[in-house]
């Protein structure tokens, strides 16, 4: 193949939507172009060997926060062993502040922003001449109707074994400063009938798991209703052939018409990802996040109590102006709403995001290496921030794992944040580890903690056993893992 489109995904289950968009829009060069995906953690030499085995003239890499360090090593090796191969970069991680990045210095060309038009045109000039003199090419944003849909490029293997990412729109009208979507002017929808036709074709080929990457799925309610009706029709036609759909919802925008439709879905068919990020109005104002907290809370409560949707709700620790006490209040408020999962995220400074404007005023110190996690602020010192990082990890192991459904309620009591922080500090003191804790050891530690808090040994063992045995016997199929285009938490 003359041109290879490549990236390092966070997990094998992820199938890169960006690469498939590029391939779909290669025009006359499509027959000479192929996709070759890898997974982070693979050996650099093996990646380079497999890429060069196809004898490409151009390799385009999709660069994201999770793969930039490993892809830098791949590009460095390629330029040493095959300097004649032209390397083109694109993706959110290299679209901003590119001048200081080692991977950009190593590469031949860079496409910033939208690549659907600019990348194919650049490849044509590289291969057919005259070669472009400029290294950096700003991506041209075409009319949405001119972008060819990529979904036919999902292979049968992708459909059978991987998460299928789809989007009914691009962009976001909101300006939350920790997110790259803050740079968008608005949200741009694809033609709905065309998009639904693509979903129909995927479903006919056997696709049953769809993850929407739209930042604002419920921004246009008429569109949301038509898309959800598509899935309801499939479920009604074949109730024994379930379909699973994942959407990201704006938390304070859930009108009755959308509620009525959501309520029709059976268990196991819907997952909603809802970004609360902070319940503190002053912090929300600082990061330009407009959110009606009362409506957001009411909507989460309704979804938990009146629908069968699985709720994954996000909070971010380390935002400017938020101290531990404020974050704890928000966390406790969210726990009281009883979503199925609370994603406890730590703020990251994504390249290009406006959050950097608060650096000096709020003493914000970020790790200089990906994923650029916040290390300290003027209200949360370094040691405390590390305690929050450990809290987030143990929260995933115990609360979000679904293995301690009964036990977690007892552990949290009437002061969820304080009680779980105490557990987090205790278990770290016992293990000096946040990863690679086997389930049987974790269960034993949880039972021991319950005894520390005053429960009898027998009662603690029985409580933990009431969770572990049924959970392992009837462990549900895993929901799709997240690999959000613009990772924010």
Task: Give a short synopsis of this structure.
The protein has helices at residues 17-24, 44-52, 68-81, 102-106, 118-128, 156-161, 192-204, 221-237, 256-262, 281-286, 293-306, 324-337, 382-400, 405-412, 416-431, 439-452, 457-473; strands at 3-9, 33-39, 58-62, 86-90, 109-112, 136-138, 164-166, 169-171, 187-189, 209-212, 244-249, 270-277, 310-317, 341-346, 365-366, 374-376.
- State the share of residues found in helices, binned by percent: 40-55%
Radius of gyration: 24 Å
SSE-based structural type:
alpha/beta
- What is the third-level CATH name, the topology of the largest domain? pyruvate-formate lyase- activating enzyme
So what's the CATH class of the largest domain? Answer: Alpha Beta
Mean pLDDT across the residues is 94
**Unreliable runs, pLDDT <50, ≥5 residues?**
474-489
Total of DSSP H or I helical runs spanning 4+ residues:
17
User: How much strand?
Assistant: 15-25%
Terminal CA distance: 37 Å
* Approximate shape: globular
The total of beta strands comes to 16
Describe the structure.
- The protein is α/β, with parallel strands linked by helices.
- It has 2 domains: 3-144, Cobalamin-binding domain (Rossmann fold, 3-Layer(aba) Sandwich); 154-473, tm_1862 like domain (pyruvate-formate lyase- activating enzyme).
- It has helices at residues 17-24, 44-52, 68-81, 102-106, 118-128, 156-161, 192-204, 221-237, 256-262, 281-286, 293-306, 324-337, 382-400, 405-412, 416-431, 439-452, 457-473; strands at 3-9, 33-39, 58-62, 86-90, 109-112, 136-138, 164-166, 169-171, 187-189, 209-212, 244-249, 270-277, 310-317, 341-346, 365-366, 374-376.
- The strands form 4 sheets. Strands 2-1-3-4-5-6 form a 6-stranded parallel beta sheet, sandwiched between helices. A 6-stranded parallel beta sheet has the order 7-10-11-12-13-14.
- Strand 11, helix 9 (256-262) and strand 12 form a beta-alpha-beta unit.
- The chain is globular and about 75 Å long.
- The protein starts with a strand and ends in a 16-residue tail after the last helix.
């Amino acid at each position: 193949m003359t041109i290879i489109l490549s990236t390092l995904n966070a997990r094998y289950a992820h199938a890169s939507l960006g690469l498939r968009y590029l391939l779909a829009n290669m025009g006359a060069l499509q027959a000479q172009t192929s996709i070759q995906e890898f997974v982070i953690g693979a050996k650099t030499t093996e990646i380079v060997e497999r890429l060069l085995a196809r004898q490409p003239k151009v390799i385009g890499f999709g660069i994201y926060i999770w793969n930039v360090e490993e892809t830098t090593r791949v590009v460095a090796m390629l330029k040493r062993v095959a300097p004649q191969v032209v390397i083109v970069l694109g993706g959110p991680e290299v679209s901003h502040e590119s001048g200081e990045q080692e991977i950009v210095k190593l590469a031949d060309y860079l496409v910033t922003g939208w690549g659907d038009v600019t990348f194919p045109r650049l490849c044509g000039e590289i291969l057919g001449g005259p070669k472009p003199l400029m290294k950096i090419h700003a991506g041209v944003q075409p009319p949405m109707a001119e972008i060819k849909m990529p979904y036919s490029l999902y292979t049968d293997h992708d459909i059978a074994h991987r998460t299928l990412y789809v989007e009914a729109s691009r962009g976001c009208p909101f300006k939350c400063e920790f997110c790259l979507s803050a740079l968008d002017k608005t949200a741009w929808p694809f033609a709905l009938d065309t998009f639904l036709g693509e979903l129909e074709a995927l479903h006919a080929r056997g696709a049953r798991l769809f993850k929407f990457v739209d930042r604002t799925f419920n921004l246009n309610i008429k569109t949301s209703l038509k898309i959800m009706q598509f899935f309801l029709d499939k479920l009604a036609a074949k109730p024994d052939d379930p379909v699973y759909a994942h959407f990201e919802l704006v938390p304070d925008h859930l009108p009755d018409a959308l509620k009525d439709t959501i309520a029709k879905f059976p268990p196991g068919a819907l997952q909603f990802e809802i970004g609360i990020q902070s319940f503190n109005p002053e912090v929300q104002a600082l990061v330009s996040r407009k959110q009606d907290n009362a409506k957001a809370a009411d909507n989460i409560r309704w979804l938990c109590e009146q629908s069968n949707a699985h709720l994954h709700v996000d909070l971010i620790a380390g935002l400017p102006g938020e101290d531990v006490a404020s974050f704890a209040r928000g966390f406790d408020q969210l726990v009281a709403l009883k979503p199925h999962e609370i994603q406890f995220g730590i703020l990251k400074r994504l390249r290009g995001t406006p959050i950097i404007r608060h650096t000096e005023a709020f003493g914000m110190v970020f790790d200089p290496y990906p994923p650029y996690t916040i290390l300290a602020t003027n209200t949360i010192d370094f040691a405390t921030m590390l305690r929050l990082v450990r809290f987030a990890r143990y929260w995933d192991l115990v609360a979000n794992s679904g293995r301690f459904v009964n036990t977690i309620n007892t552990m949290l009591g009437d002061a969820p944040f304080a009680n779980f922080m105490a557990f987090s500090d205790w278990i770290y003191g016992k293990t000096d580890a946040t990863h690679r804790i086997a389930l049987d050891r974790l269960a034993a530690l949880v039972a021991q903690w319950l005894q520390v808090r005053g429960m009898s040994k027998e009662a603690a063992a029985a409580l933990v056993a009431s969770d572990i045995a049924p959970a392992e016997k009837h462990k549900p199929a895993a929901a799709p893992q997240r690999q959000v285009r613009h990772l924010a938490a």
